[in-house]
Request: fold
Amino acid sequence: MIHVDQASKRFAFTLVELMVVVAVIGTLISLLLPAVQAAREAARRIQCQNNLRQVGLSLLQFESANSAFPASGWTRPGLGNPSGSYLSWRGVCLGFMEQANVLNRYDVQQHWWFQNNLQVGSLKQPTFLCPSSPAIEPVLFVPPKAPRPSLALNMPLATTDYEAIMGVRPSLDAFTYDASNRFSIMHRDSRTKFSQILDGSSNTIMVLEASGRPAVYRRGKQKFDAHNEQAIGWIDSESAFSLDGSSADGAAEGCGVAEGCFVAINARNDNEPYSFHSGGAFALFADGHIAFESEAISILAFAAQCTRAAND
Reply:
């Protein structure tokens, strides 16, 4: 009789068993990927919020040093800009963000589009960026916007995902807003003091997400046939905007609530609040706190947070 050594038997997966194992692994991966992606986005959101908080601290330090907040952009002499150059609020706040080395290279006696300043503007400032935003194609030519000439850039300007909200367009609600009460904290050539925030610093937004610019987005999709002559970099002084309101698809802007422009957030990114987060966007209030504003918010409720003295 021939005895077979049981220990010498060779075992192997059958083809059916191997297919079952592969199917199980594939199912586990498909279940795991959304969780990993969600965890990564949660981390990006936290970093985005922290960056905006740093922006808020720099603005509050500027206010402490100058007894007023900076303007969203200057066209004449003002706080932090005695020469009256066209400068952005981000440029004058660099010194309060541990970026004095960058500020020292920035000639604030000249407009931001002068050649040396364009080199400074090409330097990436991570604090001005939300990691949830996608990379965009570099912009090397900028059409003119008086008094700025057209710009042929050797290096693209570094972008920003945060912008000052200047206030509300009166056309949004003509019964509530006019030239006397439509402004927020930072607008063109402003020098707003805390005492002028009559609606309360914890109720008034001064900076919010306006991501993806100068590329143009509508409801998460980039419009390659549309161009933005503003918001071409963090150094740009012409990128702040007032709340207009958009149609649900982002195609129309500023047409009024009754005509369908009733969306406040995430419909369009050129001159409206916009983020690449699901469900809303972060906003920085004048007291320094950050809130996540739902894109489902009523535009009139959101508008009430974008003015400092409208009694709403």
The two ends are 100 Å apart (CA to CA). The beta strands are 141-142, 151-152, 162-168, 205-209, 217-218, 221-222, 241-243, 280-285, 290-294. The longest strand covers residues 162-168.
